[in-house]
Amino acid sequence: MSRQVSDEAPDWWRDAVLYHVYVRSFADSDGDGVGDLPGLTGRLDHLSWLGVNAIWLSPTSVSPDADFGYDVSDYRRVQPSLGGDVALDALIATAHERGIRVLLDLVPNHTSVEHSWFVEARAGRGAPRRDWYVWADGRGAAPPNNWLSDFRERGLPRSAWTFDPPSGQWYLSSFLPEQVDLNWRNPAVRDEFFDILASWFARGADGVRVDVAHKLVVDDRLRDNPSLHPDDDPVSRQRGQRQLMNAERPELHDILRSWRRLADSLDPPRLLLGETYVGAVERLAPFYGAGDELQLALNIPFLRTPLTAAAMRTTVDATLAALPPRAWPLWCGSSHDDGHLASRWCGGDQALARCALLLLLTLRGTPLLYYGDEIGMTDVEVPANRRRDRGGRRDPARTPMQWSAQPGGGFTRPGVTPWLPLGDCTRNSVAGQRADPHSTLCLCHDLLAARADRDELRRGEMTWLASPEGVLAWRRGTAHAIAVNLTDGLVEVSGISGRVVVATDGGRAGESLPGRTLLAPRSGLLADLG
Ligand code: NOJ
């Protein structure tokens, strides 16, 4: 396999800017209104220009799409409607030629009900693969225990168990009833996934994002979860109970270690980025192990921190303090489950979105952008008759990429109805912003270029600087400083002398800073000191 990506650093991911592509929503090459892999390959120009180092693709395996790829029916083949196997191989090869690495989304916690393993398992209590899944007898007519699905049903909590009338047993389904939890205590399941992972790496994947990494193993006695405590974290509160028995089980670390040994045994080593949807930064640390589990773990408490100086500083400090030595943080503000940062953090305000991006791209750690973040794309209201998501109200976070103001938004052909409604591309699009050097898009481009040019912006220590209330200011290494004014007033920041490299109000680039500098409301800058 030809690789043009630079392989000199085995821990390239510490230097990288990652970019999550929700494939169905990025670019539609065949005019069916759904994004696909050839569409993405055709848009790699944009990602090269932007300067991202790796893309993570939402799931690409064969799936009946009850949860848009997060319900896999064949891990070894690529979804035909996304372009199939040939299209994935072509994407990986083309991305590598451009120096962009590719991470695939591994969904190990559950399969689709349509997977042949489950079809076999469901044949009866004595079926050969019965023990690949988690089955249990009910408590009378009630489910085996009190575990709740992460997905509600019509807004109400739903049991994590689904009744299977022919066998009279219940199967564990922590998300939709069509998503069946695998039994990770079964060595045959472990062996099969080890082999799947090895085959993906052999195919050229530079790493994987591990879906629901925190839930892989459940309590062997299927004990009830305790009920909520008033000071439980927001994720537990959202789930309606403390997930002590069906999440964050100690046994899952063995699995992560075995995958890490595989990832590290390859040349170049591959990346494991985990979806660790836990409600407190202290509980992220175990997923890094002793440097022998995940290299990167999704930080949900950060993503859920409000965009104020005090709250952000508290979460960043808590994260840096909680992670084990040498562990490396991952920062993101948007996702296909939670929404775009321009809406979540900024209420659609573009000046604030630029501040948020400046923060994300200059903290010590690896930033993860979600498609559209680079243009400050906001969530789009989706009318009831166009909703597609059965797992929650996540459609607004997944609307098509806004490429241009032409009909179809540059996402699909003119006249085709996209699978989810397009936002207002006349007001916000990649093409519109490329033409404006002071746009959010150009800011992101310039920040990525500054990171690429300056080692300390990637690896340098991070030290807070004194700053007025509502303002965050910090140094990276010895030669760079960042200041972000998140307030609605003009503020003066002292202690930064040097030259502005990038500013959220683009006119300031190149300006020399004498030691005291004024920051307009909702604005920020990156400076070289000296
Ligand atoms: C987490 C994924 O991000 C989400 O989109 C999916 O619905 C669940 N895992 C279930 O796979």
- How much of the sequence lies in strands comes to 15-25%
Radius of gyration: 23 Å
Average pLDDT score: 97
List unreliable stretches of 5+ residues.
Answer: none
> What's the story with the biggest beta sheet?
8 strands, parallel
Strand count:
21
Derived structural class = alpha/beta
Ligands bound to this protein structure: 1-deoxynojirimycin
- State the end-to-end distance: 45 Å
Query: Helical segment tally?
Result: 14
Helix percent reads 10-25%
What topology, given as strand order, has the largest sheet? 13-12-11-5-2-1-15-14
Shape: globular
How would you characterize this protein structure?
Helix content is 24%, strand content 18%. By secondary structure, it is an alpha/beta fold. Helix 5 (187-203) runs parallel beside helix 7. Among the domains are: 110-181, Oligo-1,6-glucosidase, domain 2; 187-271, no CATH class; 459-529, Immunoglobulin-like (Sandwich), CATH 2.60.40.1180. The relative contact order is 0.10. The longest helix has 17 residues, at 187-203. The protein binds 1-deoxynojirimycin.
